[in-house]
Every structure is written in C-alpha cells, then in structure tokens.
Amino acid sequence: MRIALFILATAMFLTAPILTAQQPSLLGEYYNGTNFQTKVTSRMDREINFNWENRRPAAGMDVSYFSIRWTGKLLAPASGKYTFSARVDDGIRVWVGGQKVIDAWALHDEGRFSGTIDLKANQYYDLKVEYFNDMFEGEIQLRWAGTTPPRNSQKNNANWN
Ligand SMILES: [Ca+2]
Ligand SMILES: [Ca+2]
C-alpha cells in the first residue's frame, strides 16, 4: 500500500497560503550519532521548529551528537519561486523535488541559510530535510514561503528573513 505524507503550506512553522484538505505531517527519523548511525525512533512531526537547548529530542537519544531526517511531500499552492529559510545549530541540508536548496552541513551557532526553487502549482514535491547536532545546543527551524503573494490570500505572509 502506498502511503503518502502530505505537507501543506501551513505545516512548516510559517504562515503561508492555507490549504486544509489534508493532514500535514512529516516523517521524522531520529538517530544517535551526527551522521545517522543508530536509529532510535520515528514519529510524525507537524512542523520543523525545535530548540532543544540541551534536552533530548526523544527518549533514548543523547543530548549531543544526534541527527534527524524528515521526509514528506510538499504541495505548492501556486506556481512561482519559493524560498526555504533555516535557522540551525548545527548542520542542515534540504532537498525539494530532488534538488538541493540548502546545503549547510557543518557546525553552526544559530546559522541562517536559505535557498530558492521554482515550484509548480498543485504538484507534490518530495521533501527531504537532514539535520545534525554536534555538541550542546541543538536547534532547527525551517520555513518556506512564496516570494510573490498568492492571489487568494488576504495577506502576504512571506515577511520572514
Ligand atoms: Ca553549534
Ligand atoms: Ca550544537
């Protein structure tokens, strides 16, 4: 049976064109080790917006030296250019439709990274986000938004940096 995971525009810690037809969620796979060495657990995450501050991301995980991979489908609400913006400690890389839009796989303290990609309306794109925390603080926030206001939206919410 084919299981589809749908990410809607509202799912990822941002305000964006609202689509409510599906349940938004990402499959999060949680590992000990900074390069996906030992899988600890899987769960569904509604957004990527975490600041662990020396807490464990999940039971059985370490405070430092862990990695997480999120996968799902991204539905573009309108055709156009989209910007993905991350704040991270430590490293992140993001693929949309197989294209790498953020590549910052290194040690960072509140590092901010972004990348843009053209997406077509009403089309599902594979989303893959990989993240690792080395020592101490672990943090990841990932947002996405169109760079032009969607016609059906009352406000343009793409006012994040
Ligand atoms: Ca750091
Ligand atoms: Ca860290």
Characterise the protein shown here:
- The chain is mainly beta and 161 residues long.
- The chain has no helices and 11 strands.
- It has a domain of 94 residues: Jelly Rolls (Sandwich).
- Strands 1, 2, 3, 5, 7, 8 and 10 form a 7-stranded mixed sheet that branches.
- 33% of the residues are buried.
- One calcium ion (CA) binds next to loops.
- The site of one calcium ion has 5 residues, from loops.
What is this structure, in a nutshell?
This protein is an all-beta fold. It has strands at residues 6-7, 26-32, 38-45, 49-51, 66-75, 80-89, 91-96, 99-104, 111-119, 124-133, 139-146.
Structural class: mainly beta
Order of helices and strands: EEEEEEEEEEE
Rg, please? 15 Å
Q: What's the total helix number?
A: 0
Q: How far apart, in Å, are the first and last alpha carbons? A: 40 Å
CATH class of the domain at 6-29 and 69-130 and 139-146: Mainly Beta
DSSP helix fraction: under 10%
Weakly predicted, low-confidence segments: 1-23, 153-161
CATH topology of the domain at 6-29 and 69-130 and 139-146: Jelly Rolls
> Residue-averaged pLDDT, rounded?
80
Biggest beta sheet summary: 7 strands, mixed
Report strand %. Answer: over 45%
Strand tally: 11
Shape: globular
- Assigned CATH architecture of the domain at 6-29 and 69-130 and 139-146: Sandwich
Small-molecule binders here are: calcium ion
SSE inventory with pairings:
Blueprint: E1 6-7, E2 26-32, E3 38-45, E4 49-51, E5 66-75, E6 80-89, E7 91-96, E8 99-104, E9 111-119, E10 124-133, E11 139-146
Parallel strand pairs: 1-5
Antiparallel strand pairs: 2-3, 2-5, 4-11, 5-10, 6-9, 6-11, 7-8, 7-10
